Amino acid sequence: MRERMLAGDLYLADDPQIAADSERAMSLSHRLNTLDPNDGTARREVLTELLGAFGEGSDIRPPFRCDLGYRTTIGARVFVNFNLVCLDVAPVTIGDDVLIGPNVQLLTPTHPVEPGPRRDKWEAAQPITIGDNVWLGGGVTVCPGVTIGENTVVGAGSVVTRDLPANVVAVGNPARVLRHIDE
């Protein structure tokens, strides 16, 4: 089932390998979330162990929650404010110089719409990609399969259900382009 998950296919999450990966992420997240908040060196060490990549000059303010950790890559000079939830069953790629406000959710999991397979606990996931120099305001939710283009700003509380191009301001539920950004 883990191989199916990694391939992006439907899978059942009761696989022992998936459980071990999840337990690892929960343990490291717990360690991160209970560190002295002024110990940036220890926080960086835990995040480097937890995540697939954690760029130079980046910071995540705890609390932070993720499903697996190793499926999330974060570029350089990224700032993540309090309470990021990153359900990274599929890859979550965050570019350089990204700003993420408090209470943001990056959600890759999907479930079948049909009641039978959903009741049988089948699930899948679609990747999320956030381009360089993006700003996600507080409380933004990014749904499975979404790509947000570079330099884009997503207003607080928005729900991003489909791709957003580069160089725009988008707001709302669902998020819609409000205007283009000129350099």
From TrEMBL:
Residue ranges of domain Maltose/galactoside acetyltransferase in the record: 2-56
SMART domains hit by this protein: Mac
Keywords: Repeat, Transferase
Entry coiled-coil feature ranges: none
CDD domains in the cross-refs: LbH_MAT_GAT (cd03357)
Domain of life of the native organism: Bacteria
Signal peptide: none
Family: Belongs to the transferase hexapeptide repeat family.
Official protein name in the record: Sugar O-acetyltransferase
Source taxonomy: Bacteria, Bacillati, Actinomycetota, Actinomycetes, Micrococcales
